[in-house]
């Protein structure tokens, strides 16, 4: 069992901010864990940042299982959270349970679903059978088509009510935390005060119990990022520079240098061995 458990995450509310980041492969997850993240999250955002899709709607359970397995092999301390992709839990509670079990068997410690109130029955059942669940309200990217794109949520009374209803339903159903995405900070603050479970914000301001960002966004791995992201590095710039240097050194013969290859010290020995090898090959026709 990993050190950070859902119970530990709940205990952090009001005491210590929760740091969560996405990761989709083994080396990234190793770094995320070693950096002291509380939650390493295999988000369905991988559809966009890893597979180049326009949105997350095409992400499959198989993809989530492969990536969860890779991440879970790397993480020793943090809680490993896996996203339930679009279509994997909406058809029936039974199908939702079957798919959550696949993610747990791939090494996740908990699963995340988008929404709250509409899936309260599924959350209740998962929690009762021992699968910890995180909910997700505010902007829910899996409702991209209905929302008409990614936009700030919580400006109207109806949206505030919907967000609060989701958070309360998740708390009641036994979820251990809820993500609040791209809402006005006042709304996220209200939810944080209204529920006993931790709120983890992304583009929802500072008055929440923790923050989550997407790996590629915060590291500056490519340019297309949401407006609320802070870039902590310019990794794409570093990658580009490194690749240009490599290419130039290949073209001008600087790479490989003497440190990067091996050769016979005794050239006569090599000549003898090569002649014998060539002779044997002649016999093969
Ligand atoms: O899939 C994802 O990365 C997410 C975060 C934006 C919370 O759901």
Write up this protein:
- With about 280 residues, the protein is of the alpha/beta class.
- The chain folds into two domains: about 5-220, Phosphoenolpyruvate-binding domains (TIM Barrel, Alpha-Beta Barrel), CATH 3.20.20; about 240-285, no CATH class.
- Helix content is about 45%, strand content about 15%.
- It contains twelve helices and eight strands.
- The protein has helices spanning about 5-10, 25-35, 45-50, 60-75, 95-105, 120-130, 145, 155-175, 185-195, 215-220, 235-250, 265-285; strands spanning about 20, 40, 80-85, 110, 135-140, 175-180, 200, 210-215.
- Strands 1-2-3-4-5-6-7-8 form an eight-stranded parallel β-barrel, surrounded by six helices.
- β3 (about 80-85), α5 (about 95-105) and β4 form a beta-alpha-beta unit.
- α2 (about 25-35) packs across α4 (about 60-75) and α5 packs across α6.
- The longest helix has 17 residues, at about 155-175.
- It binds 3-methyl-2-oxobutanoic acid.
- The site of 3-methyl-2-oxobutanoic acid (KIV) has 10 residues, from β6.
């Amino acid at each position: 069992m990993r050190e950070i458990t859902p119970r530990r995450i709940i205990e952090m509310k009001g005491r210590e901010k929760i740091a969560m980041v996405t990761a989709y492969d083994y080396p990234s997850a190793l770094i995320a864990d070693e950096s002291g993240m509380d939650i390493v999250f295999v988000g369905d955002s991988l559809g966009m940042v890893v597979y180049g899709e326009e949105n997350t709607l095409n992400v499959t359970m198989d993809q989530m299982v492969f990536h969860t397995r890779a991440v879970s092999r790397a993480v020793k301390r943090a809680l490993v959270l896996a996203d339930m992709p679009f279509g994997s839990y909406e058809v029936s509670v039974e199908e939702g349970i079957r798919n959550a079990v696949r993610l747990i068997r791939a090494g996740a410690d908990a699963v995340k679903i988008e929404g709250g109130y509409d899936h309260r029955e599924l959350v209740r059942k998962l929690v009762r059978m021992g699968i910890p669940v995180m909910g997700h309200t505010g902007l829910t990217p899996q409702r991209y088509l209905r929302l008409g794109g990614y936009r700030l949520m919580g400006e109207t009374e109806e949206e505030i009510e919907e967000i609060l209803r989701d958070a309360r339903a998740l708390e009641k159903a036994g979820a251990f935390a809820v993500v609040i995405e791209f809402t006005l900070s006042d709304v996220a603050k209200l939810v944080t005060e209204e529920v006993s479970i931790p709120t983890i914000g992304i583009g929802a301001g500072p008055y929440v119990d923790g923050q989550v960002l997407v790996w590629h966004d915060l590291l500056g791995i490519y340019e297309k990022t949401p407006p609320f992201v802070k870039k902590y590095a310019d990794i794409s710039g570093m990658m580009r520079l490194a690749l240009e240097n490599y290419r130039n050194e290949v073209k001008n013969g600087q790479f490989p240098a003497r440190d990067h290859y091996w050769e016979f010290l005794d050239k006569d020995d090599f000549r003898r061995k090569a002649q014998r090898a060539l002779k044997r090959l002649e016999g093969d026709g």
